[in-house]
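Quick entry, no commentary yet.
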Amino acid sequence: MKRITWLLFLFAGFFALQSFAQEVPDSASVPPPEPDFWHQEGLTGHWGGARTKLEKKGVETEFKLSQFYQGVASGGLEKSSEYNGKFQTIFKFDLGKLAGWKFWQVDFRTETRFGGPMLGGTGAISPVNTAVIIPGAKGTVFSITSLNVTKAFPVDLKEGKLIAISAGRYNLLDLLVEDFFTGGGTEKFFHIAQIGPLTVLRQVPLITNGASFAYLRKGEPFLTFTVLDPNDHSTDAGLSELFADGVSAGPGIYIPAKHFGKTAKHSFGTFITTKKYTPFDEIRQVLIPGPPIRQIEKKGGSWSVNYAFRQYLVERGKKEGWGLFAQVSLADKATSPIDRFATVGIGGNGLFKNRPHDEFGLAYSYTNLSEDLKDNIELIRHGGKLLAEHQAELFYNLHLTPWFRLTGDLQYIRPTRPIAEPALVPGGRLQIRF
């Protein structure tokens, strides 16, 4: 019944937007011809011109349905498989066009997770599918994952220099925008290790409230500083207890470069939180072995530092091509279950000349557990002392049309639990953009 209600709500919203756009007069005399069914960006096209009119008035819309099927084909703790998925809605409002408030923007996003639980049985500490743990790890869960307002202050528009201040509710995965990785599990890699440094998970929750400052050069962030509520609020507003348990904050710097005549980028970041933790405290993105065999006192001041590198090897244009990437990160072993993390890989788009839009990726990641955690668990239960986790992933994202994408994915995991054999996890993703 809940699914039917939400479908009716979405269709009602769709027709309401279409009616609104049709009522707004358009100053353009003749709109450009729309692409045909197989070449349009969304399955539903431009809604007879209504979507185009909305964009001219400052309203951008995007709807995505991603479905997954994954299984443990061999190794791990047990053979299993799961079907699940996610429906996402994205609305961006340019208040300069809508209300005359120049350089103001509102970002509003929702996510509905559905289907079976997150695939288990690998014996690993980190999830094999990032998308289906947000906003929940099982069942049907709806959440407003992003609702924030941003004000830009131009410094030099010709050179793309601006200062941007933003406040509200964020899905932190939406803020990770990279050419070769990230994507929240619905665009590129499935596994969470390839998307961002796992060491930062103790200080930065998936969905929470806060504010950020950014200095942009050439239209891209150069310096950033973020302040966040340290508690995860994936399924609640979180406003009544804002910063009740402390604060998480951290600066970042992004340095563009040219190596071998091709685009590269270096970034450094750190986060620290005043909230008190132990390595065994729950993190929604990590399957923490436990409970501890002896009591551990919670400590504040948990920290992490990270470095990331990207280098185009083949560059056909802006964000067109493929190359190398790497991440290295360290964290406080007294509060974080993961104290060292590294990943290296290759990815991008256009591996084959006749398939310029297809995306691909191949990556290896190393995840080391805190010694404080490893030394304080029941060894018999896990088959001995926990091991560092090794994980490799290969994917190819086939753009059959601009709105229909089919992805094949294969993961090889050396789990943290000694009693688990190395696991082979094949999977598929089908995405439709409306």
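second:
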Amino acid sequence: MGQLQEFVITFKDNKVVYSPGESVSGTLKITTAHAVLFKDIKVNCQGLCGVTSKINDTAWTVEEQYFSSTLSVADKGTLKWGDHSFPFKFLIPASLPPSFEGKYGKVMYRVRAFIDTSRFSKDYKTEKPFYLLSLLNLNEVPDIHGPSSSSITKKFTYLLGVKTGTVVLKAQSDMKGYTPGQVIKLTTEIDNQSGKTTGTVVACLMQKVTYQTKKPTIDLRTLAQVEGTGVKADKQVEWKEQIIVPPLPQSSLAGCGLINIEYFIQVSLKSPVASFLLPIHIGNISVDTTSAQPSRPPPHTPDPLCSSTKPTKLENSSRSEPSSYNQGPPTTTPTPAPRPASHPAPKPVPRIRVSTSSPIAPPAASPSAPPAEMDNLAMGARGLAIKAIPTKRHTQLGAFTRPVLL
């Protein structure tokens, strides 16, 4: 470094991760072996985005600057032999995109220092990066509540084009937004309306990063992949799987016009070839599922105009049954009239049947699961039993796989 033995930037408390609206403060440390004449010593704080069409190239094709602030810590003079310290402090603007680094560009923040020397002397510069973390609250994303679902119907030929068939592929994720560490619950239905066994069904968690150059560059990568078995001829099946969300940058970079990040689940059949996408969002604050639940109806309040006499179970049952079940007009007394001892009262005929169609059954009396004798089978739209299929392979690839370029 010539006349300088040390020329470094240090942040207060060695902090390197900040949030928008915070201050970046630290010290510029300079140690000289000899006296150094200088015209100016400056410290600059800068935030920018740069993109390129060549992988890992820092000669940006397009740049976008968010802010740049410069502080002059020393005017023209001489740095004597020894140690020198110059404090600095910068306020980070409140509306900035978070830090991001990809194959074809980055959103970066840094503090730089410059020593301008005399005309024929060497100038000095150094820099130190810091990182900006801006939390994405998924609850602020429009239409975030509820599942993400889609379907496709594929008609195809087989046996050298002699026969035709149809496959209906449907899939649904339990939510539209997730945070790293959460589990994506995916349910897929395959209705094979043909005489040929299908290929395997595959679900992939994908990341798509678009870099806005003259011709947009797309970096598409698979983060996780699960594969289920094929479906036999004329069968309806259901495939349930789970995918753990790895550590990932958040969806979109609010305030950045050059880099766009998207996530989706790709569900596909290998044969016949059929696929679709389920868009999802990745954020830092998870979706509040309680706010999306319908409110429960208020408890029933007795009519104050009704009699305060509590009816018996038999009377309550007879009021909720059709008129054909009634044996006479209602009486004003809560108990039946006494009968002679020589003629005992007959046993009442049972009026409540164990049936989901009973007139006194509650509105939600339909079963929530198939009967036990169905062996966990459900009936599909075509009247066929739907059975679960197993998973052949589950691969959690993480966020740093080899990109696939489109």
